[in-house]
Please model this.
Amino acid sequence: MTENLTKGMIQVYTGNGKGKTTAALGLALRAVGHGRKVIVIQFLKGKELSGERVSAKLLAPLMTIIPMGRHGFVNLVDPDPEDKELARKALGYAKELIKKNACDILILDEVNVAVAYNLIPVQDLLEVLDSKPEPMELILTGRNALPKILEKADLVTEMKNLKHYYDKGVPDRISSER
Model:
């Protein structure tokens, strides 16, 4: 691992607008350019083809993206027990990476959604935040970040949807949403 950051921050990207994961990945791209090691754990996302996973393979070993959900959408109103188990495993893996101080930047993509819909307890995520090594940057993405998470964060950015082409019936597009 390269020279450590002096003090890693906890950043949260939340809100109903587009761009939360994109903002986190932009930060990751910048960090890789400075020789930093970045690991992204994707909660609720399966192994479907995505542009960011293809890009991460090109940036390996400095950037790794690990999807830990299953294929398809999670029913957030009545989650399948498998989705809860996968979310718990993803958080457990994050704990292992933190304990090993395995990277400079750890991104927990969609973890806010997993917590907001009780796939994992908020207290478990708070413990992860408290266990972060001083120099590690920790980034949490996803809608509906809970107030307890926002209180712990050093930076909170809310993405607000003012206008979106989805509203006009335009489906998700390769290279923009996938």
Notes: DSSP finds six helices and six strands in the chain. The CA atoms of residues 10 and 153 lie 5 Å apart. The helical segments are 20-33, 51-59, 81-100, 111-116, 122-131, 147-152. The domain at 10-168 is CATH 3.40.50.300 (Rossmann fold).
